[in-house]
Amino acid sequence: MRSSGASGAGALGFRVGTGFENKHRRPTRSTASFKRFTRTTAAVAATAFLAASLFVIYDATRTFSGVRRDLLVIGEMLAADLALRSPEGARKVIEASEGLFGGVMQASLAAPASEPMAPLSLELTAEPHGTLTLSATPTSALAGIAGRGAAAFALAGLFTLAATRRRRTGMPDTAQRDSYHQLAAAIPMGLACWTGTGQLIVCNDQYRQRLDLDDTKLTYHQAVSRLIAGGYMKLVREDSSLRLLELHCEDGTCLQIDERPLGDGAFMTLVSDITETKRTDALLHAIRDEQRLLARRYHEEKLKAEAASRAKTNFLAHLSHDVRTPLNHIIGFADLMQHQTYGPLGDQRYADYVKTIKASGEHLLASFAAILDLAELDNGSKPLRQDPVLLDEVLGAVVQRFQGQAQRAGITLDIRPGTGAVLRGDRLGFIRMVGNIMDNAMRFTSAGGKVTLASFAADDGVVIEVSDTGIGMNEERLASLSQPFALGDASFAREGGGPGLGISIARAIAELSGGRIAIDSSPTLGTTVAISLPIDPAAAGLIAA
To answer: What is the residue range of the signal peptide feature (predicted)?
Structure first.
């Protein structure tokens, strides 16, 4: 850090007291008067309009920077909130934010803009919902800037007209000083003008309040001493036409001091309070650091979760494989005993026990086979074929499988007309995917109910829809379906119930085929499962050929 002495702020200012103007040849009286008049008027005019221009630039920059900072802080909070919500909840949050900041800020979720953003707009990533776009209405900000700028330039014009002559000492006369006072009073920051010898020409109320002044004979050196009392000054920039310093006070405030030459050794000092700007910058920096820390932690936890998932999948795969071998032996020996190949068992109860052992073994074998299939689908070790597949043939195979079961259970099976769509994928995988959904619908629909199988085709894909009038599910139960081994209501469980992997296996097949599954359900009303899959025009051409 540089003190006022080290930076030159408390010593000479812009040639304060150096007698720089006496180093040139002394002109004649008439010529000197003319030149003094011309230089002074030009310098005053340039200074006045420069000050007005600087004020407008500073005002516009600070206003728009403040609006963008506010948008950034609001946007980061909204993005963090949206990341934790569902699409419907995200939409409600956006609507609530527009109502809260209506007329000042608008927010929306959309794809990233392909064209450049407006000056008062910004985009933030709001995964998994897309891109959060925030925009502020610049009308009020532009109106304020225009009004203040017009006032500054008007006063600059008056200031220029009033500057007609200067005394040899460099101090303006009374009329000029009154004009200076009017200009200084219009500047919304601390302003002081000094002569080449460091004498105060004029200062506004903001400058007086900052230095607690009541003496109009204050010199530049005394003003600097008062400013740096109880704090330290840091030089930010210095050249022949500008010196920019930051004053850090003991009470935590931060002032920006901007010094510029006016000509003939005179110069002006602009003092502005940038404490809130510094605090906002520090807050944004802290928020960004926190976001980086959270992103790093999220990445670490994600890697741990993925590693745990892979370990779980590998464990299930090995466990299923190791258990299937002894189960096959149990089932084989139970079958031999059931058929009494090597002689009668004796008591009839032994025959019943053997039958139960075989049925239980087959049930366990089917369960472990489903677990192994899911594990292989999850870790990608069981790739699906990519063949042209007629959707109507897939649905026909599923209907043929469940038609007899529906008749025995007293359930109406409603089959809608086909679409003729052609998919690219694994035919057996598609049959199993739709069959698992149909199996759940049949299992949880009571006698007298109805199960509907329909398909709808569009240019970009098809939707397979399975609806039932069964027991349905509440929201909590519906949310648990994303996890494997999720079973239905125990009171409605029927014989042959598996480990609850039907939905998980169907979802895995749909996602590996480029589609997705959506489930909608209400208690006592039933459940609808929609499977969306892409179509392949090239595969349709192969089928036609």
So the answer is: none
Query: Is the entire prediction scored with pTM above 0.85?
Result: no
Report angle CA 238, 47, 262 to the nearest 5 degrees.
55
Burial zone of 374 (CB within 10 Å; 0-12 exposed, 13-18 middle, 19+ buried): buried
- Whether the CB-CB separation of 284 and 292 falls below 8 Å is answered with no
325 Cα distance to chain centroid: 51
pLDDT tens profile 432-476:
899 999 998 998 899 999 999 999 988 889 999 999 998 888 888
**Sequence-distant (≥ 6) Cβ neighbours of residue 405 within 8 angstroms:** 442
- 201 vs 216: CA distance, rounded Å: 9
| Amino acid type, 258 | D
Are residues 391 and 543 in contact, defined by beta-carbon separation less than 8 angstroms? no
CA atoms of 10 and 32, how far apart (whole Å): 32
Alpha helix (H) residue ranges in 380-473 = 391-409, 427-443
In CATH, which superfamily holds the domain spanning 387-544? Histidine kinase-like ATPase, C-terminal domain (3.30.565.10)
Please state which of the ranges 7-16, 55-64, 134-143, 260-269 shows the lowest mean pLDDT: 7-16
* pLDDT tens column, 127-174: 666 677 777 766 666 777 777 777 778 777 776 766 644 444 455 555
Query: Hey, what are 455's tokens?
Result: 């398909």
CB contact set of 461 (below 8 Å; sequence gap of 6+): 515, 532, 533, 534, 535
For residue 76 the two structure tokens come to: 């980061």
Distance separating alpha carbons of residues 347 and 507, to the nearest angstrom = 48
Residues 6+ apart with CB under 8 A from 226: 211, 212
Residue bearing tokens 């420069």? 50
CA distance 231 to 247: 7
